[in-house]
Specification:
heterodimer, A: mainly alpha, 4% strand, rod-shaped, B: mainly alpha, 10 helices
Chain lengths: 144, 187
């Protein structure tokens, strides 16, 4: 029975720090305080500990350049984010440009290759590495 | 210096102007950003300093909170709620810092009466707070030092009011026990 009363007392002690208790709760606290030294001591300790916590609150002084630093960091972040946002596009454009250059190079090279007329067929551009090249040479020898 | 450059002394935003300034912040207006920082920085730094118990870390967290808030302004549904929004981010960042700090396994040093008399109140409080888990510590600081209501603590920590109530009860009890333990010979 006493345990229950102690538990209720502790709960109410915690609550009265945050809200106004009703008269019956108040009278219960007073009555229990007078009969239970253990709970009375716990209440005193709790009050002291919390008041000590409040007095130990820090009151930091704000540095004069706080705003400036935030804005500077904001600018840096903005630049970093825009770089992060646009970098895939830049990389894509760079790769596309490389591919375009490579294909242009191939086209210009094929224009320089020798043309061979194959027995009434259409003229064909070949290079020395073309596997058909030895056959063409043999054919032309036979014709002679 | 920046204030002087931008002529901010003459323009002080009121609560009614918040929507206007937040809209300008969203557009990347640096003057508006600076105004919002000016308006809310004291509260953020104060809260962060008391949760983290470190002035320099508090400044860093407050700056980070502003940057995060500005970057994620598009998520803000109601521009009027910017103060609560940035405060919530700050509290969350503080809790992240507390969690990332390595928990010291060492037990609290048992002090002799002579030592405890010499220990400054602030240092002792820091040691006691260090032994509370981040959730309890933040709840206790927001309620007892920052004097926020249950609803405000719940909003800042993004938890239900019932959770705040129970955490606060546990935090006060643990804090009392730690305090008694630390000062046992003198109490």
């Amino acid at each position: 029975m006493k345990k229950l009363a102690c538990r209720r007392f502790r709960r109410l002690v915690n609550e009265y720090r945050d809200r106004a208790l009703n008269p019956s709760e108040h009278s219960f606290l007073q009555a229990h305080r007078s009969v239970c030294p253990k709970c009375r001591n716990l209440e005193r300790q709790g009050t002291l500990a919390l008041s000590m916590l409040r007095t130990a609150a820090l009151e930091p002084e704000l540095p004069p350049n706080f705003n400036e630093r935030v804005i500077r960091r904001w600018r840096v972040r903005s630049v970093q984010e825009s770089i992060r946002f646009w970098s895939p596009a830049f990389i894509g454009a760079f790769v596309a440009a490389l591919l375009l250059l490579a294909s242009l190079q191939l086209v210009s090279r094929s224009a320089q290759l020798p043309t061979v007329n194959l027995n009434g067929h259409e003229a064909r551009k070949i290079s020395l590495q073309d596997p058909i090249f030895p056959n063409i040479i043999e054919e032309s020898r036979e014709r002679r | 210096m920046l204030d002087v450059k931008l002529g901010l002394k003459a323009v002080v935003p009121t609560a009614a102007d918040d929507c206007y300034w937040v809209a300008r912040c969203r557009a990347g207006d640096e003057q508006a950003l600076s105004l919002m920082v000016e308006k809310h920085r004291a509260r953020l730094v104060h809260t962060a300093a008391n949760i983290l118990r470190d002035r320099f870390e508090a400044e860093d967290v407050a700056q980070e909170a502003f940057l995060k808030a500005f970057r994620e302004l598009n998520r803000l549904r109601d521009d009027k709620s910017f103060p609560g929004y940035v405060y919530q981010i700050c509290v969350r960042l503080c809790m992240d810092r507390l969690r990332s700090k390595r928990i010291e396994a060492a037990e609290f040093e048992v002090t002799t009466p002579a030592e405890s008399r010499n220990i400054e109140n602030r240092v002792l409080i820091e040691k006691l707070l260090d032994q509370l888990p981040p959730d309890l510590r933040t709840t206790l600081v927001l309620r007892e030092i920052e004097q926020l209501s249950y609803e405000e603590v719940a909003e800042a920590m993004h938890v239900p009011v019932g959770t705040v109530r129970s955490r606060l009860h546990v935090a006060r009890e643990r804090f009392r026990k730690l305090w008694v333990e630390a000062l046992r010979p003198s109490v």
